[in-house]
Write a structure and sequence with these properties.
Mean pLDDT of chain A: 94
Largest interface: A-B, 54 and 54 residues
Oligomer: homodimer
CATH topology of the largest domain in chain A: Rossmann fold
Helix content of chain A: 25-40%
CATH class of the largest domain in chain A: Alpha Beta
Order of helices and strands of chain A: EEEEEEEEEEHEHEHHHHHEHEHEE
Low-confidence stretches of chain A: 371-388
Amino acid sequence: MTAGGLGRVETRRVVLFAEDGPLRLQSGAALAPVEVAYETYGTLDAAGGNAVFVCHALSGDAHAAGHHGDPAQRGWWDTIIGPGRPLDTERYFVVCANLLGGCSGTTGPASVDPRTGRAYGLRFPLLSVRDLLAVHRALLRHLGIARLHAAIGGSLGGMQVLQWALDHPEEIERAVLVCASARLSAQNIALTAVARAAIMGDPEFHGGDYLDGPSRPRHGLSVARRLGHVTYLSAESMRRKFDRRRRGGPGAQMTMGSDFEVEHYLDHQGESFVERFDALSYLYLTRLMDYFDPFADPTLDLARVSTRFLAVSFDSDWRFGSEHSRHLVRSLSAGGVEARHVEIASPWGHDSFLLEGEEYHRVVAEALGAEQPQRVRRALPDGVARLG
Amino acid sequence: MTAGGLGRVETRRVVLFAEDGPLRLQSGAALAPVEVAYETYGTLDAAGGNAVFVCHALSGDAHAAGHHGDPAQRGWWDTIIGPGRPLDTERYFVVCANLLGGCSGTTGPASVDPRTGRAYGLRFPLLSVRDLLAVHRALLRHLGIARLHAAIGGSLGGMQVLQWALDHPEEIERAVLVCASARLSAQNIALTAVARAAIMGDPEFHGGDYLDGPSRPRHGLSVARRLGHVTYLSAESMRRKFDRRRRGGPGAQMTMGSDFEVEHYLDHQGESFVERFDALSYLYLTRLMDYFDPFADPTLDLARVSTRFLAVSFDSDWRFGSEHSRHLVRSLSAGGVEARHVEIASPWGHDSFLLEGEEYHRVVAEALGAEQPQRVRRALPDGVARLG
């Protein structure tokens, strides 16, 4: 990691929709209060023109960079945000907010329903990506930002950026979508369906009403997270990280309990996740990804989309691989929108978007800062560009 | 499917190891009684030289072909076994047995432990592939068969055939390993680890002692099976079968419950599996696959292996893809063993081994019947042959 980085930062909270002015969801339902947790890094310039909005992925939160007291415990995208980093906080005013439906400070299904005084549970309304954006946009109004220099996000974060730029291109100059998708495949949906089945079938899920009870569906959520991690890594990155190494050593006796290092890794991921994440948020956020399909929207008018798009994918990502980026860039280009795709060589699968990578970071930095199209080393079919 | 096929068949049972002559496992543990469920098709010739042993995969059973009364409900490999089919029952005497540790008639962890009068549960000893073979071999002795014309199996079935031919090549003339592996990858292990976590963490698993209680870990087992099916299909076959089709139709409201056809498919697979399969068998059989690594065995002596091997893989299989077949053929060839690899083009992923396919069936038929090496259309690197 680059030396330096942001110092101590803090999460702020603001109620953006109160009971007298509820958030109107795509489904028609009204939601209030809607509180949002967010962080900002850097300084908004006098013209308000240097803001970059970071949309986080499924399990992210508002704490994207810097630290909350322990300099070793840094935000989830600290590698890319900070002084001199691609999202250069000496140049940009960076905003990151926990998304609607989340469980890290922003209103979600684990919040208290003011009508009942109990947690919403499954009575929380189903959300669309547009609902998430309505809250992001209200936060920007609250911060006095009318137009973003750029919006960027990985995975579900990239899906938010895409929908935002399609709906309100005048608000986003540059959109950077990292390993995103405009349309989950049947396999993608199947994987989240298994995760949701693990949660909803857990005897301790109690129909979603576990929040006021003594136990939570820890088991189901930890299985969902284990499965998630299998899909965030590539087969090759698992081989490099773990291969067939056993904690007991090569000669140890067989055991039904965890023995291979990859098992211990998944156990750890599952167990730590249940301490910080809510099972209902997992359900709501995966579900809105399944339904996301913006190019099938009959109201879409690409002719008015002035935002410039960059889609970045990683060649070993099998969760939202390059075919997803190609599809969304093709869909944009077909409508005359300026959109490029860069595929980065990386063995680390979907997780690559959270990691450092010289080429990856350079491509993102250029997309944010350059007025000219980036250098393209080699043209691929259907207008896709590949660097390196 | 070819018209015809076997008629009514029946499963037989035999106790192969009684308390006065227990099965000695690789771990040193003794197991008795060991009962085996098996089926045979065709007629053993006078010389006893036309027997073909079929080793089944994780969720298979002894009922490989024909039917048990309802001609529409046929054995799991009925496509390949029968009169005029690749395992031609007018020519071969075909034997298939439920494997040790299974739950379809052969002794396994759900069987009653004679020492306690209760189900074994997790007190059942851990098994190795060699333990499964010890029972298969005892069955052959019982049937009066000293040497197999061929042994064939897919997935875990192929792993059994491989170990058998390595240990007792004099007993197997031809070995056909279909989408098998000699060494699970970290990703393979991770996937079974998630499945096992789903089962063992289910509050109704009760440390494995659910068999004498009122409930079973149905939830965990159904999640494991859903996940299994995601890995048995390819992304492409899921697209062809389900794409993003919704049962409610394209305009229906979003729902947290199953809606996409692929979700209903997985629900059905999960729910029907728990009616016929035991969670403990799932644990024991996946676990022995994780540990399987025959080419790392220091006692292995390839110089004495006279069996002729054919490894078949399918290009869209990402569970045990062609790299697994290449690895095992390379390992055999390096020791001077006659081994070929044929990769078949098929969009259906790991499941392809259970399906019909003209080229697939021809390759298997030729491997069983031909005295000459099969015609090779195109040579690939490292001695691998690709047909078609």
